[in-house]
Amino acid sequence: MKVLEINNVSFSYEKEVVINNVSLEFEKSDFAAFVGPNGSGKSTLIKMITGNLKPDQGEIKIFGKSINNYSDWSRIGYISQQVRDFNQSFPATVREIIASNLYNKMGFLKIMNSKLEAKIIKALELVDMKNYLNRKIGNLSGGQQQRVFIARMMVNDPDLILLDEPLVGVDIRAQDDFYQIIGEINNNLQKTVIMVSHDVNLISKQANKVICFDNGEAYPHDSGDFSYQNYIEGLRDTSIRIIPEHGH
Ligand SMILES: Nc1ncnc2c1ncn2[C@@H]1O[C@H](COP(=O)(O)OP(=O)(O)OP(=O)(O)O)[C@@H](O)[C@H]1O
């Protein structure tokens, strides 16, 4: 069964067509990179996959079910472009940050039971941060905060992981660290990963599929067939910028 199917999907904001008749498929343990210039529709497609935007035309299926009837959202993990730099005085602990992704499992009184606590510990072990459970998130380094966010995403054991430019403003060491952890989650746990990134060279080495967005269309490549050089030369033909706009 396909993890995710996008069939002839189109979407416009007002009159601007942003996604134009796009069809793509993703299977278990795929690592797909969404690349393309600013404004080419990568985030818009991610928002449709998370159910935050509805296609004007076409169909999205998650684990074989139409997204219109889909309800098991805990099987989908998501990290967005959000800025993660918490100020030192930010009061939440690592436990609370991760627990906030378990609220729907806690029931009316929001009580943490031992089963949920065990899930939090397991997620922290995955990112090698078990000893930081009671630390304030604001006191951790940027790289450690990023690990906590991966743990927060993994606490529900999602099968499909969507990452929308999670590395904007992150230093090179933390980037390597992030790729290593996500690579392990992809390889060892067979999770499907879709990641939007402007670092086309780096991500095309990590991914097995590279999807190039341009002018509302999306062109899939196996990473073995993808040429970074051709990609860059293609962009040079136009006045398109490929530098991320959301810098810090
Ligand atoms: N809420 C909105 N209302 C109107 N237009 C929007 C909205 N969000 C995005 N757009 C426009 O849709 C187009 C696609 O945006 P989108 O964010 O999907 O691109 P992207 O490929 O993710 O770009 P980037 O790499 O800069 O993040 C852009 O022209 C953008 O200005």
From TrEMBL:
In terms of domain of life, where is this protein from? Bacteria
Q: Which GO terms describe its molecular function?
A: ATP binding; ATP hydrolysis activity
Pfam families the UniProt entry points to: ABC_tran
SMART domains named in the record: AAA
Q: Does the keyword Membrane apply?
A: no
Instruction: Read off the CDD domains from this record.
Output: ABC_Metallic_Cations (cd03235)
Q: Which family does it belong to?
A: Belongs to the ABC transporter superfamily.
Question: What is the name attached to this protein's record?
Answer: Metal ABC transporter ATP-binding protein
Native organism taxonomy: Bacteria, Bacillati, Bacillota, Clostridia, Halanaerobiales
